[in-house]
Amino acid sequence: MAILLDKNSRVVVQGITGSEGTFHTRESVKFGTKVVAGVTPGKGGMDVDGIPVYNRVADAVEKQGANVAALYTPAAFSADAIIESIEAGIGLVVCMTEGIPVTDMIKVKQVLKTSNARMIGCNCPGITTPGVGKIGFMPSFIHKKGNVGVISRSGTLTYEAIWQLTNLGIGQSTSIGIGGDPIPGSGFVDMLALYEKDPDTVALVMIGEIGGTAEEEAAEFIKSNLTKPVVSFIAGRTAPPGRRMGHAGAIISGGKGTADEKFKALEAAGVIVEKNPAEIGKRIQEILAKKKGKKK
Amino acid sequence: MKIHEYQAKSLLRAYNVPVPNGEVADTPEKARDIAKSLNKTSIVKAQIHAGGRGKGGGVKVAKTPEEAYEAAKKILGMQLITHQTGPEGIKVQKVLVEETSNIKKELYLGMVVDRARDKECVVFMASEAGGMDIEEVAKATPEKIIKCAVPPAVGFSPFEARKLAYGLGLGTDKSLSAQFTNITKGLYELFVAKDASLVEINPLVLTVEGNLIAVDAKINFDDDGLFRNPDIRELRDENEEDPLEVIAKNAGVNYIKLDGNIACMVNGAGLAMTTMDLIKMAGGEPANFLDVGGGASPDQIEKAFRILTADPNVKAILVNIFGGILRCDRVANGIIQAAKNIDMKLPMVIRLQGTNVDEGKKLLKESGLKFTVADGLYEAAEKVVALLK
Question: Closest to A156 (Cβ–Cβ): which among B117, B267, B355?
């Protein structure tokens, strides 16, 4: 079944006529994604590889039944584009864009609260469901269909973990990059809840980093609500305090948000914390082997 | 982005938050002139982007304009070392000369964005423990800090300000309550209008005369909001930043200098932090954080190499690239070209993974340059640490 991105997903790409938008739309289509429309205000009437471009998301929803939005919009206009999608009735908004001001996301979360929409991102590599499709720019070759869920705040670090799994013959149900921003559309907790209900997912990889309390919140959730095993890695043990380490959300503030605190909280919740990122795949392999052993 | 106290106070004035009369000076003569025009006892404060200036000797009271001259003469040009500057300290280029206040009480008032899942909004924090390190207060006596979340859908409400005022013991005084409400209103407007990320008034002083005044002010800004706040961009002081980091920023390279001797160049912030962690795990000391980004063009790689090798501490370099859309053979060519262009003398370990990895590794091995090629993440870190033994 996988989560969020499935056979019923019909994607509208906001910013499709930009170079990033066009390139990644093509890769998405190659991967099997149903991209049904694009939106670039002012460019309605064009098409990209036969995909109709509209001026408004509402048109894409009405005319093509779009229910998922993928955003490659400039940072200055992304909050506006996200809110437009939510108001047009899009159920899942995935925003890849980096550089959106925090005060904009505070506004966006308010709109999300009073809607039925879900949002992933911003500043994320997107979502991939092997065998179904992908939104965003995770490289296509790393994925393999299977039953491990991957949730991460990172980009290339996520690809490393997925690639480790695939090389061990372990496939993924859905891989989700929730992004590196301080206020994301969805956090670990939101995704864990979905994976817990997904019959196709039997184990999880959770990749966090310094800054904020998303991992600690996940630990709390895992304690009481998750039956599936989790292997977790946290990047940034050697990051100095007070500095933004690339991602807007990767900053140790007022002494809080260190990697060690997160490892501790997760361990206390029964998560298998792995401090060596090269071993993430192996830990999952061990868990799956144990499960198989138990079944016998 | 950080700014100086005098710049923060200028912004506060614009938003109707009371601050002491005063002006910034970059010479002792100017300091004396300002003290003269203030015609009161003044305080001469070093302007650097770090706290703890008083303890470090960067703040002096001056009873006369001559004393202000002497104080400014001592402070200007000094390498001010505080618990927040690092051992080399920061060279003081400006001082703020302002009136002193008759302090009755020192309060703390701050604003941050609370990232907790159930908040995700601007939060005011206030405390009667003013003039102290708020992190210490938070650790030792957290109950002394009153918090007030601003609901984004509603914005600032005077009753929330009154709630804080009551918690600070100001609530029953009509004048103080009104003053406090105006201050919090102004701060909230400033925070949202200018995309701030942190505001700290410590201390917010209650004077003997019954006035609230922001005696010290610190404002940090969201880097991602700078594009729409050109007036804030102008406040940037490159002298307060590490020179290599300034060069990197101006060249569009995402770089943070650390203290070690093993440099790293990686694509992706999470992977870059991980690479630093791996170097440490393998027994080495990372010299920097560097995210070369999704493009990693030969030009970007060369810029990155130039910055890494400009750090005299660096003795070896670890390149860790996961090529998705970015092809490993292209990256390899970029690395070879860049290394040749800058006549790279340092030993390098290069770990590539992803699209066209075998072609990439082959190109590196056959380049004739001093590259060690690695496969696995941990293996790459072990190899670069071994290079220095």
Answer: B267
Q: How many residues does chain A have?
A: 296
Answer whether residue B5 shows pLDDT above 90: yes
Q: What is the CATH number of the domain that holds A48?
A: 3.40.50.720
> Which residues from chain A sit within 8 angstroms of residue B258, using beta carbons?
238, 240
Our CA angle for A205, B295, A158, nearest 5°, is 0
Is the C-alpha dihedral spanning B309, B313, B319, B320 positive or negative? negative
Give the mutation candidate from A157, A168, A189 for the B interface (greatest B CB count, under 10 A).
Answer: A157
Asked whether the predicted pLDDT for residue A296 surpasses 60, the reply is no
CATH number at residue B87: 3.30.1490.20
What pLDDT, on the 0 to 100 scale, is given for residue A133?
96
Domain assignment present for residue A130? The answer is: no
> Does residue B294 register a pLDDT over 90?
no
Do B162 and B177 fall within a single domain? yes
Are B254 and B156 contained in the same domain?
no
Q: Taking the complete model, does pTM exceed 0.90, yes or no?
A: yes
Asked if A160 lies within 8 A of B228 by C-beta distance, the reply is: no
Q: Whole-angstrom Cα distance, residue B5 to residue A229? A: 50
Beta-bridged to residue B316, according to DSSP, are B262
CA separation for the pair B76, B73 (Å, rounded): 6
Q: Do B82 and B121 lie in a common domain?
A: no
Query: For residues B24 and B47, what is the distance between their CA atoms, to the nearest angstrom?
Result: 9
| Strands lying side by side in the sheet with B262-266 | B254-257, B288-291, B262-266, B316-323, B348-354, B371-374
- Give me the interface pTM, i.e. the ipTM: 0.96
Å between A238 CA and nearest CA of chain B = 5
CA distance readout (Å), A154 to A110, A177, A249, B13, B291: 25, 6, 11, 41, 12
Maximum Cα interatomic distance, chain B, rounded to a whole number of Å: 80
Question: Which of chain B's residues have a Cβ under 8 Å away from the Cβ of A237?
Answer: 277, 280
CATH code, domain carrying B182: 3.30.470.20
Min Cα separation A245/chain B (Å): 7
Query: Is the backbone of residue B117 left (phi > 0), alpha (psi -120 to 50) or beta?
Result: alpha
Tokens of B170: 């100001």
Query: What integer pLDDT is reported at residue A2 of this predicted model?
Result: 73
* B58 vs A255: which has the higher pLDDT: B58
Q: Is any Cβ of chain A less than 8 angstroms from the Cβ of B169?
A: no
Cα–Cα distance between A128 and B361 in angstroms, integer?
A: 28
Average pLDDT of the residues in A103-132: 96
Q: For residues B16 and A94, what is the distance between their CA atoms, to the nearest angstrom?
A: 40
* B51 Cβ under 8 Å from any chain A Cβ: no
Judge if B237 and B108 occupy the same domain.
Answer: yes
Q: Is the pLDDT of residue A128 over 80?
A: yes
Question: Is residue A1's pLDDT more than 60?
Answer: no
